[in-house]
């Protein structure tokens, strides 16, 4: 029996006020946005509260929104899961494009260690307080962050793959 | 990913200098991998050894990283299945089906019952082949080669069934949005029946070879044990978590593709050691066979293999040459001009190794805006250094095999 979304919302708003907002349900998953600086306290509350009990970190990943205004160009998405009531929840937090920094949640979930390293590796998001924030999948010598939207997938000098000939423009592919 | 040659300032060198054993012996660094014949896949572990005991380990991953998430952002939805194949290549149909189900969730497509049952059959076959590989390789690593050669013939039979369904064997690229690309041939069902007929005896014999085998028990019991709390903290899912005694299974918790229609048990272990992981996988193979039999029995009559979604399902090639509509749809699908809503979807399935999830963000264009793979191997492999701490070198190999870390899924 899944937790009532209204109950989750009330509990969180009671504890954190405006720091949690934009509650909505998308394709059966309850989504909320949380303020970046208090993310550890919010997730800790969600994990340790007896009713919420979101004890399992399913997934953590980054998203890049270069079109957004500077203060929310990066997004870190946490998927939490309460196995007892079988409730999933998605917590999104937006951070600045010039200084992407966010407290690490490795103190709450040990599994966040590599997931945060992966997010750092691909987006350059600094997780403060992470025990060993180094690249994980890419080579150490790399200087760019490949999943940022401005990073081209292929060598831009190639002439044999001109997308214009296939009806594609930079806006639709 | 770091350098293969350890720099002089590496922390292990400092530990070696500071620590003095009573008998005057020294700690040593051993580089296990990246391509070591005993690690099945490309894994590097820099081990700090005290004699034959592991003091500390530092895994390095990323040797076959292929940037699937970046490639996916530049490919239309149809061209992403081949990427999913190459993650857990031991059970690629599960990955394929998970990807189609993610898209169907996004597009609100109802898949006909028969197609759902066909999917369940092929996913369970994939799970069997995944577990065959893991358990028989575990046998190889403990010195029992025979079982491996014996059951691998039956993995071959599973691949022949795949071949009948989609034409490919290892990286299957199977299915379409809405179901399958074509109906299964009578030959596929024949081969499936033959497999169900022959395989149980083989698997029973395989189990008999191992489960009460003195040598195997000595090598695996209490080796690489992990408690349920630790396993959950490290994000374990799938058979490795169930071996520790937690009965979390996505097929039961959040049934997809009509898993709720079938009766099966979720085998759990107790101590979370290598032997329990082996036993849980063995038992899961029996449950998978049970599910396949039920699916065949309950399969609705007819030959419906896909939902009626012409805008997303590639039409048969003959129609493309004859019908105008089919030609238009074919062109639009191949060029990626299919209507897609702006949304965010997360779809989990029970993969061979645990919860495999696809987190898809679309912006209405021809490609995903962002696609993140929740890869179970990647998440639980970080517990490996802790699991092998204090054990023998040969145990480290056995633990790695029993965790069934697939390099393709680890590195994506």
UniProtKB/TrEMBL annotation, chain A:
Sequence similarity: Belongs to the complex I 30 kDa subunit family.
> Which protein are we looking at?
NADH-quinone oxidoreductase subunit C
Asked if the Swiss-Prot or TrEMBL record annotates the protein with the keyword Protein biosynthesis, the reply is no
Which proteins does it associate with, and in what oligomeric form? NDH-1 is composed of 14 different subunits. Subunits NuoB, C, D, E, F, and G constitute the peripheral sector of the complex.
EC supergroup of this enzyme: translocase
Q: Which reaction does it catalyse?
A: a quinone + NADH + 5 H(+)(in) = a quinol + NAD(+) + 4 H(+)(out)
Q: Which cellular compartments is it found in?
A: Cell membrane
Enzyme Commission code(s) on record: 7.1.1.-
- What are the protein's UniProt keywords? Cell membrane, Membrane, NAD, Quinone, Translocase, Transport
From TrEMBL, chain B:
Look up keyword Membrane and say if it applies: yes
List keywords of the entry alphabetically. Cell membrane, Membrane, NAD, Oxidoreductase, Quinone, Translocase, Transport
Q: Which segments cross the bilayer?
A: none
* Record domain NADH-quinone oxidoreductase subunit D: where: 141-411
- The answer to whether UniProt assigns keyword Translocase to this entry is yes
Q: Subcellular location, in the record's words?
A: Cell membrane
Task: Give, as one word, the top-level EC class.
Answer: translocase
Q: How does it sit in the membrane?
A: Peripheral membrane protein
> What Pfam family is a match, any one?
Complex1_49kDa
Q: A Gene Ontology molecular-function term? A: oxidoreductase activity
Domain of life per record: Bacteria
What is catalysed by this protein? a quinone + NADH + 5 H(+)(in) = a quinol + NAD(+) + 4 H(+)(out)
What EC numbers are recorded for this enzyme? 7.1.1.-
The entry's function note states: NDH-1 shuttles electrons from NADH, via FMN and iron-sulfur (Fe-S) centers, to quinones in the respiratory chain. The immediate electron acceptor for the enzyme in this species is believed to be ubiquinone. Couples the redox reaction to proton translocation (for every two electrons transferred, four hydrogen ions are translocated across the cytoplasmic membrane), and thus conserves the redox energy in a proton gradient.
Give the UniProt family note.
Belongs to the complex I 49 kDa subunit family.
> Do you know which HAMAP family this protein is assigned to?
NDH1_NuoD (MF_01358)
Query: What assembly does the database describe for this protein?
Result: NDH-1 is composed of 14 different subunits. Subunits NuoB, C, D, E, F, and G constitute the peripheral sector of the complex.
Any idea what this protein is called?
NADH-quinone oxidoreductase subunit D
Gene name in the database record: nuoD
């Amino acid at each position: 029996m899944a937790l009532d979304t209204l109950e989750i919302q009330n509990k969180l708003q009671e504890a954190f006020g405006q720091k949690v907002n934009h509650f909505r349900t998308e394709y059966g998953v309850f989504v909320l946005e949380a303020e970046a600086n208090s993310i550890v306290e919010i997730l800790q509350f969600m994990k340790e509260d007896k009713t919420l009990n979101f004890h399992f970190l399913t997934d953590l990943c980054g998203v890049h929104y270069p079109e957004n205004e500077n203060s929310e160009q990066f997004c870190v998405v946490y998927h939490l899961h309460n196995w007892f009531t079988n409730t999933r929840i998605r917590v999104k937090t937006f951070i600045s494009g010039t200084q992407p920094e966010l407290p690490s949640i490795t103190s709450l979930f040990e599994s966040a260690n590599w997931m945060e390293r992966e997010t750092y590796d691909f987006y350059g998001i600094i997780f403060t307080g992470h025990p060993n924030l180094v690249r994980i999948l890419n080579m150490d010598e790399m200087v760019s962050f490949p999943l940022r939207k401005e990073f081209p997938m292929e060598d831009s000098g190639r002439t044999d793959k001109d997308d214009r000939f296939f009806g594609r423009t930079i806006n639709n592919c | 990913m770091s350098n293969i040659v350890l720099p002089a300032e590496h922390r292990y060198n400092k530990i070696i200098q500071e620590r003095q054993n009573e008998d005057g012996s020294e700690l040593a660094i051993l580089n296990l991998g990246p391509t070591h014949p005993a690690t099945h896949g490309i894994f590097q572990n820099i081990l700090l050894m005290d004699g034959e005991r592991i003091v500390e380990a530092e895994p390095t991953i990323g040797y076959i990283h292929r940037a699937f998430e970046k490639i996916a952002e530049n490919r239309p939805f149809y061209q992403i299945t081949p990427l999913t194949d190459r993650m857990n290549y031991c059970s690629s149909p599960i990955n394929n089906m998970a990807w189609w189900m993610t898209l169907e969730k996004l597009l609100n497509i109802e898949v006909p019952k028969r197609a759902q049952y066909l999917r369940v059959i092929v996913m369970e076959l994939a799970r069997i082949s995944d577990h065959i590989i893991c358990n028989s390789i575990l046998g190889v690593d403990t010195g029992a080669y025979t079982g491996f050669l014996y059951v691998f013939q039956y993995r071959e039979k599973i691949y022949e069934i795949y071949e009948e369904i989609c034409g490919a064997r290892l990286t299957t690229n199977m299915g379409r949005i809405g179901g399958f690309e074509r109906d299964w041939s009578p030959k596929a069902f024949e081969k499936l029946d033959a497999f169900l007929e022959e395989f149980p005896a083989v698997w029973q014999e395989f189990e008999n070879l191992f489960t009460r085998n003195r040598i195997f028990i000595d090598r695996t019991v209490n080796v690489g044990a992990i408690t349920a709390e630790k396993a959950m903290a490290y994000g374990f899912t799938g058979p490795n978590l169930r071996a520790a005694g937690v009965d979390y299974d996505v097929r039961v918790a959040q049934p997809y593709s009509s898993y709720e229609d079938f009766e099966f048990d979720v085998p759990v272990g107790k101590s979370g050691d290598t032997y329990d992981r082996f036993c849980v996988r063995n038992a899961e193979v029996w449950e998978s066979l049970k599910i396949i039999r039920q699916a065949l029995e309950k399969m609705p009559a007819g030959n419906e293999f896909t939902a009626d979604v012409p805008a997303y399902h590639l039409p048969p090639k003959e129609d493309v040459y004859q019908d105008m509509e089919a030609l238009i749809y074919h062109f639009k699908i191949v060029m990626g001009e299919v209507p897609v809503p702006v949304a965010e979807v997360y779809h989990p399935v029970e993969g061979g190794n645990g919860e495999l999830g696809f987190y898809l963000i679309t912006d209405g264009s021809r490609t995903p805006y962002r696609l993140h793979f929740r890869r179970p191997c990647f998440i639980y492999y970080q517990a490996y250094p802790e699991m092998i701490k204090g054990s023998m070198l040969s145990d480290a190999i056995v633990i790695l095999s029993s965790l069934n870390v697939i390099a393709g899924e680890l590195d994506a």
